[in-house]
């Protein structure tokens, strides 16, 4: 059972279409491989999340508003990396601890 056309012009047309389709498939494979390589590179070279951050408020001087564990999903865009001692000091000064990541529990600071 042969389902291909019997004449040469239609076979050449089919050959051309298949070659063009194969080129498109190969181009898509290359694009997906490039994207995968770029993602892997980004994952391997991404800097580690900081241990602690402080979310800054709005206004003159951008006062500290909330302390977070580094990598907390609830941290806003206005933030600054701080060290452990600064985080403890800010919590002791009354700056709010994030309710999601609970830096006060991580630091052993009880109210």
Task: Give a brief outline of the structure.
With 111 residues, the protein is of the alpha+beta class.
Structure overview:
There is one protein chain. Strands 3-1-2-4 form a four-stranded mixed beta sheet. The protein has three helices and four strands, in the order αβββαβα. The chain is of the alpha+beta class. A hairpin with a 7-residue loop joins strand 1 and strand 2. The chain folds into two domains: 40 residues; 56 residues, no CATH class. 14% of the residues are buried.
Radius of gyration: 29 Å
Measured by DSSP, the beta-strand proportion falls in 15-25%
| Molecular shape | rod-shaped
Q: Report helical residue fraction.
A: 40-55%
Question: Secondary-structure blueprint of this entry?
Answer:
Layout: H1 8-45, E1 52-56, E2 64-69, E3 79-82, H2 84-92, E4 96-97, H3 103-107
Parallel strand pairs: 2-4
Antiparallel strand pairs: 1-2, 1-3
């Amino acid at each position: 059972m042969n389902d291909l056309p019997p004449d040469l012009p239609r076979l050449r047309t089919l050959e051309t279409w298949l070659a063009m389709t194969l080129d498109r498939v190969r181009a898509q494979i290359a694009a997906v491989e490039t994207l995968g390589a770029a993602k892997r590179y980004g994952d391997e070279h991404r800097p580690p999340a900081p241990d602690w951050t402080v979310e800054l408020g709005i206004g003159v001087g951008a006062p500290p508003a909330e302390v977070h564990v580094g990598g907390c999903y609830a941290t806003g865009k206005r933030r600054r990396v701080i060290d452990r001692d600064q985080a403890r000091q800010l919590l002791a000064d009354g700056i709010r601890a994030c309710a999601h990541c609970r830096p006060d529990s991580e630091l052993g600071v009880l109210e």
